[in-house]
Amino acid sequence: MALEWTQVQKQRLKELNASKEQLNLVFESHADRDRAFQQQERLLVNQAKKKLSEFREVQRRPSLCELESKLVEALTEKGFVQVITPTIISKASLAKMSITDDHPLFSQVFWLDKKRCLRPMLAPNLYTLWKDLVRLWSKPIRIFEIGTCYRKESQGAYHLNEFTMLNVTELGLPENKRHQWLEDIASLVMDTAGITDYRLVTKSSNVYGDTLDVIKGFELGSGAMGPHVLDENWGIIDPWAGFGFGLERLLMAREGTQNVQSIGRSLSYLNGVRLNI
Amino acid sequence: MALEWTQVQKQRLKELNASKEQLNLVFESHADRDRAFQQQERLLVNQAKKKLSEFREVQRRPSLCELESKLVEALTEKGFVQVITPTIISKASLAKMSITDDHPLFSQVFWLDKKRCLRPMLAPNLYTLWKDLVRLWSKPIRIFEIGTCYRKESQGAYHLNEFTMLNVTELGLPENKRHQWLEDIASLVMDTAGITDYRLVTKSSNVYGDTLDVIKGFELGSGAMGPHVLDENWGIIDPWAGFGFGLERLLMAREGTQNVQSIGRSLSYLNGVRLNI
Q: Which residues form the Aminoacyl-transfer RNA synthetases class-II family profile domain (chains A, B) (predicted)?
């Protein structure tokens, strides 16, 4: 007989950030299993308390905030300019991204009223800024934003209703340098996040052109380039390249965390540690 | 005859961050005024372009983000622990703050559905964390959050729909040290923000107890202390002190900016500079 954890046990162990190995243990009898659960839970609770104590005494900033600061430093160092834009955006700007009723993302948008919603991505705001900046600044225009985006997600292991995106963009670079640019940005962000052994996957799409995804077990980021079919909605004609990363996913990949909830904005977790311990 | 700017002229000069003196100029004739407008506009546009260029070449981070980083550094240095909590909160947690239908703030809340809204303040989430942390950590518990809050505001010179709050709190300090604590925090935050000549105003309220406001022309921050009538809704029994500041207002006070829109999250302004120039 090979018994697995009960649903309730497994849920609790996941909350406590048990490793894959701990979650996949099997047992010979109910008694064995329940004894093991008590042991593992105690072990994980003790680890959690220790981690929380170190957080209080030494780190004092959530890893998500620290990662944000490091990315800001690395990117401004390379000449990218940070921007911060509204999280409340218009239905019209979503439509310019082709996100209308029939788009899969549309049903995931949080609406505030008929005309306003919470941004599900950073791109529409960056397009808007591009249009002014390309008139005011010499090319290439290098801007990035790090900020909260919102999607009604299933709240699975990789999804959050509120998550933190980084979008790095360069507008007005030569077309033949875009692919290298994407590789360089992926490398810069992975180095800064402390992630090694990731994979780059190039995909071609009739609609969206070439994209470059960064994978480590799951998708960490996705790069795109233009000229792009959406550009004309924003009055953009120059070539560009841009890369989006989910910061919570970068932390998951680095820490080997099993659930993204523990790392994002939360009232149940503090810096990865479950608080009902 | 003493002519003022036309409404349209005044609006444009405000957008361009004209000083109080520039906004209050008076003229002898329409011709004088219109000539002066062209002059002032050209002057302000040139200043704006210069500022935008320095922003690109040197600063590279919005002042709002820089101020946030400085506050984080100053507070963690003093032993305060940073937290980041959800911007989407429950109707129930608003009710625990006594913000129900009959509360003036209620009509300013952005609702996502019947049960969820965008936080109009940081306090409910910090109360929630206090309750767990007071069980897990020795007292005093020192935590702070810096993050976006949302209110349907008239969008006047001092109000934004999305603004950045800092709440610094200490739970479990001696009652006789709370007032000094508030003064110390006000001083720390004002020093960090580079604001001198501010005033502290103590108010007493039957409902909310003593509060300490920081004023420089307008309200920059407001401190409160407990035991407090709301504490029992959250199961909190220890004395506490807490201070909330609006980061955009701190920047307005320091820079002498005439409109808060230019300093907050925006698509029309970049770091205080209007983009339609």
A: 66-253
- Rounded Cα distance, A275 and A277, in Å: 5
User: Per-domain residue ranges for chain A?
Assistant: 7-60, 63-262
Judged against a pLDDT cut of 80, whether residue B98 lies above it is answered with: yes
Instruction: Give the pLDDT of residue B259.
Output: 83
pLDDT at residue A207, as a whole number: 61
Residues of A in contact with B276 (CB under 8 A): 132
Q: Is the dihedral of CA A129, A130, A133, A135 positive or negative?
A: negative
β-bridge mates for residue B209, sequence order: B205
Rounded Cα distance, B167 and B173, in Å: 17
Contact A134, A171 (CB under 8 A): yes
Contact call for A62 and B83, based on CB within 8 A: yes
Give the integer Cα–Cα distance in Å for B130 and A111: 31
* B74: its two tokens: 């100053």
Chain B: nearest CA to A237, how far in angstroms? 19
Q: In sequence order, what are the beta bridge partners of A210?
A: A204
Q: Report the candidate in A141, A128, A240, A253 with the shortest Cα–Cα distance to residue A189.
A: A253
Q: What torsion, rounded to 10 degrees, do the Cα atoms B103, B109, B112, B116 define?
A: -50
Interchain pair B85, A266: CB under 8 A: yes
Helices A63-77, A247-255: axis angle to 10 degrees equals 110
Q: Among 2.160.10.10, 1.10.287.540, 2.10.109.10, 3.40.50.300, name the CATH number for the domain at B7-60.
A: 1.10.287.540
Chain B residue numbers with beta carbons less than 8 Å from the beta carbon of A276 are: 132
DSSP-derived secondary structure letter, A260: G
Secondary structure of A179-216 as H, E, C letters: HHHHHHHHHHHHHHHCCCCCEEEEEEECCCEEEEEEEE
B198: closest CA among B225, B221, B181? B221
Q: Cβ distance A190 to A214 under 8 Å?
A: yes
Instruction: Let me know if domain A63-262 sits in CATH 3.30.300.30.
Output: no
CA–CA gap between residue B237 and residue B249 (Å, rounded): 32
Each residue's pLDDT tens digit, B150-177: 999 766 777 899 999 999 999 999 999 9
- Mapped onto helix, strand or coil, the DSSP state of residue A27 is strand
Would you call B50 an interface residue with chain A, using a CB distance cutoff of 8 Å?
no
What average pLDDT does chain B have? 94
Chain B: residue nearest A83 by CA?
Answer: B62
For residue A187, give the nearest of A176, A175, A196 by alpha carbon.
A196
The whole-angstrom separation of Cα B165 and Cα B36 is: 39
Determine contact: A61 vs chain B, CB below 8 A: yes
What is the ipTM, given to two decimal places?
0.94
- Residue A258's CB is within 10 A of a number of other CB atoms, namely 19
- From B137, which residue of chain A is nearest by alpha-carbon distance? A53
**Among candidates B79, B82, B270 on the partner chain, residue whose Cβ is nearest the Cβ of A65:** B82
> What's the one-letter identity of residue B226?
G
Neighbours of A135 (CB within 10 A): 10
Say what the pLDDT of residue B104 is: 86
d(CA A266, CA B148): 15
